[in-house]
Amino acid sequence: MLSAQAVELRDYHKAVIGNDCKACHDNGIKQFPSDQACLKCHNIEDLALKTARNDEDKWQNPHNNLHYGKELPCQECHGEHKAKQPLCSDCHTFKYDKHKE
Ligand code: HEC
Ligand code: HEC
Ligand code: HEC
Ligand code: HEC
């Protein structure tokens, strides 16, 4: 378990969220955030458009993919205080060059 002093936010979140842990930790600091917290600021339809592939690779889109559509929880692929690989990397070698580890 990390202490409050030990946690680091991502640079892209530091500026907008600062020390407001509750912006994400909507179920208390000891629980991982729900997707609802992320979706207050992010929109899954927009994300699916931003990471759309060409037709051939269409279902490799992390935000709208073959197995889970748009329903996979953010934290299967995005960490906040620690690096995280997209779940897909467990079984595939798709290129996700823009992913922030
Ligand atoms: C208070 C608003 C807010 C909340 C809550 C929030 N974000 Fe963000 N997030 C932002 C903003 C603003 C940016 C920077 C602009 C952008 O890339 O959309 C950002 C950027 C990101 C990026 C990086 C974009 C890049 O440059 O590659 C990821 C990944 C991300 N957020 C995931 C999440 C996840 C997962 C959660 C929930 C655990 C979350 N965010 C909660 C506002 C928020
Ligand atoms: C942008 C969203 C976001 C913000 C803001 C945020 N967290 Fe987190 N936190 C997460 C996510 C996602 C996880 C799941 C594990 C991970 O990615 O590190 C997590 C996990 C944790 C954990 C559990 C770690 C573990 O391995 O058991 C602690 C403790 C924690 N956060 C503390 C904090 C504190 C303290 C703050 C405020 C300084 C904070 N968090 C702000 C998203 C956030
Ligand atoms: C537990 C293993 C596993 C995970 C995790 C997984 N897949 Fe798959 N995936 C498979 C298997 C098995 C097939 C069918 C065999 C094949 O065609 O490679 C497949 C097929 C596919 C295909 C069609 C074939 C291809 O290679 O283009 C796509 C697209 C795909 N998965 C996308 C994803 C995405 C995106 C993720 C992450 C959200 C993901 N998968 C996560 C096991 C997995
Ligand atoms: C299957 C894994 C996966 C899931 C689930 C996922 N993401 Fe992503 N996300 C990625 C990858 C991979 C990228 C980088 C795209 C690339 O490299 O083409 C990304 C990029 C982003 C970006 C930057 C988009 C841009 O180009 O500006 C944001 C913001 C983001 N994700 C937020 C989220 C949020 C919020 C959720 C939950 C609603 C979520 N993601 C769910 C894998 C995922």
UniProtKB/TrEMBL annotation:
Q: Which InterPro entries match?
A: Multihaem_cyt_sf, Tetrahaem_cytochrome
A family per Pfam: Cytochrom_c3_2
- Give compartment(s): Periplasm
Q: Name one GO molecular function term.
A: metal ion binding
Q: Does the keyword Cytoplasm apply?
A: no
**Which CDD domains does the UniProt entry name for this protein?**
Cytochrom_C3
Q: What are the UniProt keywords, alphabetically?
A: Electron transport, Heme, Iron, Metal-binding, Periplasm, Transport
What is the name of this protein? Tetraheme cytochrome c
Pinpoint the Tetrahaem cytochrome domain residues: 17-93
List the cofactors.
heme c
Q: Which Gene3D superfamilies does the protein's record reference?
A: Flavocytochrome C3, Chain A (1.10.1130.10)
Q: Indicate whether Ion transport appears among the record's keywords.
A: no
